[in-house]
Design a protein that fits this description.
The chain has 402 residues and is α/β, with parallel strands linked by helices. It folds into 2 domains: 2-132, no CATH class; 140-399, Aldolase class I (TIM Barrel). Helices cover 38% and strands 23% of the residues. It has helices spanning 74-95, 108-123, 126-139, 182-196, 200-203, 219-232, 246-249, 254-262, 277-282, 289-301, 316-332, 355-361, 369-381, and strands spanning 2-6, 11-16, 20-25, 29-34, 39-44, 47-51, 57-62, 67-71, 101-102, 154-157, 159-160, 178-179, 207-210, 240-244, 265-273, 305-312, 341-346, 391-394. Helix 11 (316-332) links the parallel strand 16 and strand 17. The two termini are 26 Å apart.
Amino acid sequence: MIFQGASSTDSYTLSLRDNALTVSVDEQEVIACDRAGRLYSVYRNGCTYRRGLNGRVLRKWRDEDSRHRHWLSDFEADALVDAASATLRHLLDALRRPEWHWSQPPDLARCADLTTALERGAQFDGETARHDAARFNRLYRPIGILPPDQYLALVLQATEGCSFNTCAFCDLYHQDFRVKPLSEFRQHIADVREYMGDSLSLRGQSVFLGAANALAVPMPRLLPLFEAMAHAFESPHYGVYAFLDGFTGKRKTADDYRALAALGLRRVYVGLESGHDPLLDFVRKPGRSADAVETVREIKAAGVNVGVIVMIGLGGDKFAEGHVADTVAALNAMPLGAGDLLYFSDLVEEPGALYPALAASQAIRPLAPGERTAQRQAIREQLVFAGSPPKISNYDIREFVY
């Protein structure tokens, strides 16, 4: 529901939905918080600020040439949260003054609901946010990355770390791989639900099963984990999403994926990265491109959608030709269609990863932005789909905030 009103000094547009409250002030500032009052987005002076549950805040803005990103310091993050809280407190005070004017008076029930949402957001100041982030960080191990369509999913960590953790381009998972015992995972689910509270209305529309490669867990251990999630979430919209590597994924059959689908599995994200096996060897990613193709075929045969991820710029100039040709071949061998996703993700050379040193040792020249655009286009132009195509979009890991 949309509410519009004005005080003697400011005009406001308020949007109250089942999962969030958004407040626009003089069309210059926009504040968004979930129904538990947790701030997650602010727009101000041409910049968007996205706050994660871990307390980190990413500032994003665009100029004529490119997009820019900057992680705020703890002090800057506190100041942003305090400013948003103060704005909502000011609005609450204005609502109680006789000079306040509604463009169209809301009914009393909705007005009370709006006031409750505003009060919760106003109470979420810098100090409260720090305590809340500390609770989150006790509950979760670091969340490495999610696919863009799952940024607002509810993460449940059935595993920790990555089951192989050898990829030279990845610097996201620093702990040993571990599968939680069933009793520990059930307690994790209960603790997450308690922490989230009314935030589940925003983050509980889907479940992302973490961490890096949770579906690699053997079926005898994986099925009980899925049963625990299905028991905890009975929403008709409930669905489970997860990463899986190709060489482990082919160990499961279509019947296995069908059994997981019956317990909520809706989409599996497979990091193909490249169809060029020499490049996969170079970046120390286990398996072959044929493994990813076989895995995708088995998943699709079970009626489950997939999301396939291709890295643009991987291998630089040395591997560029083979990367394009063999990636096209691998993607065209997959039965991708409507309901599936194909992500192109630009290589980000993380300082803590092995890839920059490997590339330097081979005198590999990174692709310039224009060359990356051309590589992406060269792959897209050669794709052939039997029916309706998958949705194709970009995936920038630098945009991830949870």
